[in-house]
Amino acid sequence: MEKMLHSAPAHGRLPECFIFPADKLPQAKATSATVSLPIVDLSLGRDEVRRAILEAGKEIGFFQVVNHGVSLEAMQDMETVCQEFFRLPAEDKAGLYSEDTGRATRIYSSTMFDTGAEKYWRDCLRLACSFPAVGDSAAAWPDKPRRLREVVERFTVQTRGLGMEILRLLCEGLGLRPDYLEGDISGGDVVLHVNHYPPCPDPNATLGLPPHCDRNLLTLLLPSMVPGLEVAYRGDWIRVEPVPGAFVVNFGCQLEVVH
C-alpha cells in the first residue's frame, strides 16, 4: 500500500520520478482545440445509427454514445461509490493491493509501471466480472463501501448490454449477421478499471497513463470529473470534451483484427 498515491501525504511539489521530458508528453504535440468526438444517438433509426457507428469507426475509432439505455442513477451511483472506496482508510484496502497482473480483482498504482525513470500518476481498482455468473464474481469484490457490490453489479450488467448492442449494430453495418461477435470472442470477463487520479501539484509535467491502444474488443469509458482524455488522430493529439451523460466508445485492437 505504500506505493498507492492516494494513501500518501499530499505532495507540495511533484517528485522528480513523475516528471516526463517534454517530448514524451502528448499535450506538447496536441492541437490547441478541444474536439467533440462523433456523437451517436441510439434513439435514432437503426439504419442511421449503423451508419454513424461505421463512419466514426473508420474515421477515428472513437465516438460518444447518448440515449444508450444505461440509467443515470447507475452512472451516478458508480462514480459516487468508487469515490467512497478510495476515501476508505488504508487498512480497509490493504488486502486488495497486489502487483500480480494475473489477479482478477485488486488495487494497484501506476507507479509500478516504469518507462525508464518516469512513473505514472494514477491509482486503479480493477474488478473482473464473469457473465452470466455475475453474483459469483461479486463475491471477490470489496465489501466496503457497503453498496459497492450492488452498485457495480447493476452498472456492469447495463453497460455490458450496451456494449453488446453496439457490436450488433456494427455487425449489421458490415453486412454480417448480428450475432457474429457473440460467443467466445465477446464472452470473456468484463473488466472494470476504476482510475483514480489524486490531486497533482503539476499535472502538466506528468501523465496518468501512457499513450496506448486498448487490446480488447470494445471499451466503454465513463468520463469523471478529472479531465485529460486525449485521442491520437492524424498524427496529432486531440483533447476530448465529454458530453454529459454519454459514454466514450473505443474500438479495441481485437476488433481491428476481426474486421
TrEMBL record:
It holds the Pfam family 2OG-FeII_Oxy. Residues 187-259 form the Fe2OG dioxygenase domain. The keyword Cell cycle does not apply. Keywords: Iron, Metal-binding, Oxidoreductase. It comes from the Eukaryota. One of its GO terms (molecular function) is metal ion binding. The keyword Coiled coil does not apply. PANTHER family: OXOGLUTARATE/IRON-DEPENDENT DIOXYGENASE. Belongs to the iron/ascorbate-dependent oxidoreductase family. This is Fe2OG dioxygenase domain-containing protein. It comes from Zea mays (Maize).
